[in-house]
Amino acid sequence: MQARRGIALVAHDNCKQDMVDWARFNRRTLAAHRLFATGTTGGRLVDEVGLSVIRLRSGPHGGDQQIGSRIAEGEVDLLIFFWDPLAAQPHEPDVRALLRLAVLSNIPVACNRASADFIISSPLLTGRDPWAPELVRT
């Protein structure tokens, strides 16, 4: 039986299309889990990808803090946060707090498509032990 994970999906404005494209490619895998997303990102994932998403507030209006709260409560097992390192964010303290909380809670964090691909394809996502005899190649 596969583990059902809580996955938080967040994307800054300049990264939203990349998040939609990534989610569309990984739709089948994502659909097997509980998805949380900040406002606009969540709306696009619902409308453009057809995923079932628990939509929270927009990031600058408390959505980052709501995601952080769910991490603290143990509802979120991994954070996919496509952030824009070149654009100043008016809610930068909230972004830093969210990332700090994810690190303190020891949950995987992906900040770009490459790291998100590694996490989403890991056998650990489904709770399978990658060192189990049936998975180890000899």
UniProtKB/TrEMBL annotation:
Coiled coil: none annotated. SUPFAM superfamilies: Methylglyoxal synthase-like (SSF52335). Its EC number is 4.2.3.3. The keyword Lyase applies. InterPro entries: Methylgl_synth, MGS-like_dom, MGS-like_dom_sf. Substrate binds at H12, K16, T38, G39, T40, T41, S58, G59, H91. PROSITE patterns: MGS. The active site is at D64 (proton donor/acceptor). It catalyses: dihydroxyacetone phosphate = methylglyoxal + phosphate. It comes from the Bacteria. It holds the Pfam family MGS. Keywords: Lyase. Residues 1-138 form the MGS-like domain. HAMAP family: Methylglyoxal_synth. Belongs to the methylglyoxal synthase family. Catalyzes the formation of methylglyoxal from dihydroxyacetone phosphate. This is Methylglyoxal synthase. It comes from Asanoa iriomotensis. The gene is mgsA.
